[in-house]
Amino acid sequence: MNFESQSLIGAPTEDQRIYRDSLQRVMAQLATPEYLRAIDNEARYPYEIYDAWTELGLLRIGFPEAYGGIGGDLKDLLLISQDLAYWSYDVYTAYSVPLYTALTLLKVGSEAQKQEFLPALLDGRIRLSTSISEPGAGSDVSALRTTAKRVEGGWVLNGQKLWNTAAGAKANVLQVLARTDPDAPPRKGLSMFLVPNNATGVQCRKLDMLGRRATGTYEVFFDDVFVPEDLLVGGLNEGWSGLLACLQTERLLTSAGYVGSAQKVVDISLAYAKEREQFGRAIGEFQVIGHMLADMQTEVDAARLLLERAAAVLMQGSDAAREVSMAKLFGSETYAKVSNQGMQVFGAYGYSMEYEIQRHFRDARSTTVGAGSSQMQRNAIAATMGLKMR
Ligand SMILES: Cc1cc2nc3c(=O)[nH]c(=O)nc-3n(C[C@H](O)[C@H](O)[C@H](O)COP(=O)(O)OP(=O)(O)OC[C@H]3O[C@@H](n4cnc5c(N)ncnc54)[C@H](O)[C@@H]3O)c2cc1C
Q1: Ligand 1 — pocket residues by CB below 6 A?
Q2: Distance CA 278, CA 262 (A)
Q3: Nearest one of 68, 79, 133 to 102, comparing CA atoms
Q4: Are 250 and 326 part of one and the same domain?
């Protein structure tokens, strides 16, 4: 991979070069085409890779030393995101979901919660994931129906979550948004809880999905699940602001993943177009294919620039609602578009499960829906332009 073409807001620092090199070495060793094909086929969580990340200290980047971290900023996390997603968007989500769940905990959790959960995550004893969506609550999160009722010493959760990435992975703790005040306006009566996925009454079922099959997508059932008082995160009925606390960072990390994966699509499509010969010449020399590849790289670069701009605004401490939504919208649409074009470059070989391009085609299809759909991003952008969307 060309590090410079992946660089964000200036060339990488020496430290960034060192950890990116180590990460590439680990990924080259473990994320072989055979391994990636097997975990996709068998819908098997990439434990081997995750363990290697924790050994490398990858998860420590971006967190304060007080909780077992080694410091670092958003730029570091965005570089890592691009680098990991270059191998597989699916595998990348095994890193991104715990990361942004932990960043929310870092922002809104109590000191005791941070002391308990963050070091455990960073040294690999637990994982974290986010449980918000439900059968009747997708884009409209405020429609969620999972309830948390107060009992002596804590809360009892009942309900169902849907489409939760990595929820059923070993030693995972779910950050669950539930309704604590049924009489309050929809966004006001929500609270966040930490719930180990092996707590009594929790059931996780891995769903048979088109893509992102290894890290996986789950439905989660809560049947009279007791949650102790001290696992309420961010204050009673403060769930909505907890949800928003890290939303821009989460969307940006996700968008960095799109850019990394989309770049991989361009690289493998280009390599194939140079090597595959028809009518006595490389297919890349047919102008229609060459121009398609030129457009693909241009759009990926544009997606990266939108990401860089949003990151720069966010790192200045400013509100980046418009910039983040644009980066998310364009990044996901670009990943989906170039994967489709890549399939065309590969011809029938692309349609075979032997080739990586079909996995991108399947994984990319989820990205214009998850983490706020393209339509919701357009609504958000239009809102910053003074338009009220219905
Ligand atoms: C692979 C994958 C992983 C996911 N991981 C997680 C996770 O870890 N945790 C979690 O909580 N959730 C997760 N989700 C759920 C995701 O957040 C939702 O799918 C998303 O919010 C959209 O909700 P929905 O699928 O119910 O679609 P709906 O909200 O039902 O939308 C259906 C269609 O209508 C459009 N639409 C809806 N409302 C509007 C509107 N106001 N204006 C214009 N168009 C509109 C949408 O854009 C979409 O095209 C995941 C989803 C996927 C696909």
Answers
A1: 97, 130-133, 138-139, 163-165, 212, 217, 366, 369-370, 373, 375-376, 379
A2: 26
A3: 68
A4: yes
Single-letter code of the amino acid located at 98:
P
The answer to whether residue 258 scores a pLDDT higher than 60 is yes
Domain count, the chain: 3
Residues 90 and 139 in one domain: no
Q: What is the pLDDT of residue 7?
A: 52
- DSSP-assigned states of every residue in 122-170: HTTS-EEEEE--BTTBSS-GGG---EEEEETTEEEEEEEEEEEETTTST
Element at 227 (helix H, strand E): strand 217-228
Q: Is 371 helix (H, G, I), strand (E, B) or coil?
A: coil
210: number of Cβ within 10 Å: 11
Per-residue confidence (pLDDT) for residue 388, from 0 to 100: 86
Cα torsion 228, 231, 234, 239 to 10°: value is -70
Residue 156, beta-bridge partner list: 149, 226
Mean pLDDT of 268-282: 98
Q: How confident is the model over 58-114, as pLDDT tens digits?
A: 999 999 999 999 999 999 999 999 999 999 999 999 999 999 999 999 999 999 999
pLDDT at 275 exceeding the cut of 70: yes
Residues belonging to the active site:
250
Pocket test residue of 133, 246, 374 for ligand 1, highest count of atoms within 8 A of CB: 133
Q: Which of 235, 255, 284 is the last residue of a domain?
A: 235
Question: Cα–Cα distance between 203 and 380 in angstroms, integer?
Answer: 34
Cβ atoms < 10 Å from Cβ of 138: 17
Q: Give me the numbers of helices (H) and strands (E) for the chain, helices first please.
A: 13, 10
- Kindly give the number of the ligand 1 atom that is closest to the alpha carbon of 177: 11
The residue among 67, 72, 74 whose CA lies nearest residue 106 is 67
